[in-house]
Amino acid sequence: MQGIACGGNWIVDQVKIIDSWPPKGELANILEESSGTGGGPANVLTDLKRLGFPHPSLAIGCIGKDTFGQQILGHCRANHIGTEFLAVLPDVRTSYTDVMTIRDTGERTFFHYRGANARFGPHHVQVELLKDAGIRMFYLGYLLLLDTMDRSDPENGTVAAGLLKSIQEAGIETCLDVVSEASERFQQIVVPSLQYVDHCIINEIEASRTTGVEIRKQDQAIDETALAEAAERLLELGVKKTAVIHFPEGGLWRDHTGAQVYQSSFKVPQVESQQLFQGLLLAAPGGVAAEQDVLGRMGTKKSTSPLCADEGKGIGNPHVDRFS
């Protein structure tokens, strides 16, 4: 049995389509609204289940005893995601984000309430029980948005680093995700965890702020030399197995042997693309390092069993069945 547990930010996204962004003190009209379960753990687990992943898939984190908390529990049940490790806290509200989207431009602005996620700590992750449940992979996201996990720790650097260390020591592989924050906190909060991370999967903004390597040129094009340098730097900072940097134009995978794969982006149905990408990498037969399979599931010509049967035309017979 080879399962996955995903811990971190559990969020209800309240999306509101508005006619314009109003000047201060003025009014805009809400034209449509919808609500859905979000956050890295929810997106990864949901995508894996929709891809047919048959093994234990466990949600870990904190939610409030409220309507949004019930919405998250209902989402997990509907997608066959185990909720026995989701702590329901009676004295704090479930985290949510109001997403204001301008109808004509698609431009989005986010108003986030941290809520119960701020309480999520190592005591909510029962490592031995996860091991007994057949968990082989633990995903944590998002650093920089988890108040307790981001706290300084004199022994390990941060609380999150200490948790990831204990998970690795139990024989469970770890995967790390962070949030794209406009701050100087990456060195302080992200770097200490990297030595206890097997697979680091982040975007180009996060990679640049973590490594100090500028991945985009002045004209905003990707500098492929700098991209590879940033991936190598993540490995030098302690990542044990693979570093993956993704961006709208594509993604780069690199391991300690110096092997790397660059894949340009292509059209797929509308999904939570970042976490779908992570889910495919995490569940690739042969492990994240299985180049042929990862590329195949991404729809490239090297595949013998592609996720996208016809590039640019959507998903054909997706199925994910095991970890390494």
Short synopsis of the structure:
The protein has 324 residues and is an alpha/beta fold. It is built from 10 helices and 15 strands. The chain has helices at 40-50, 67-78, 127-132, 159-169, 186-189, 191-194, 204-211, 224-236, 273-282, 291-297, and strands at 3-8, 11-18, 30-38, 57-64, 82-89, 96-102, 108-113, 135-143, 152-153, 157-158, 173-178, 199-203, 242-247, 250-255, 260-264.
Q: Compute the number of strand runs.
A: 15
Q: Numbering strands along the chain, what is their spatial order in the largest sheet?
A: 5-4-1-8-11-12-13-14-15
Rg (C-alpha, Å): 19 Å
Assembly state (oligomeric)? single chain
User: β content, as a range?
Assistant: 25-35%
Number of helices: 10
Alpha-beta content class:
alpha/beta
Q: Give the helix level as a range of percent.
A: 25-40%
Distance between the termini: 11 Å
Low-confidence runs = 285-292, 294-324
Biggest pleated-sheet summary: 9 strands, mixed
Molecular shape: globular
Average of per-residue pLDDT values: 87
Order of helices and strands: EEEHEHEEEHEEEHEHHEHHEEEHH
Would you mind describing this structure in some detail?
- By secondary structure, the protein is α/β, with parallel strands linked by helices.
- Helices cover 27% and strands 29% of the residues.
- The chain has a 9-stranded mixed sheet with strand order 5-4-1-8-11-12-13-14-15, with helices on both faces.
- The longest helix is centred in the C-terminal third of the chain and has 13 residues.
- The protein is globular.
- The C terminus is likely disordered.
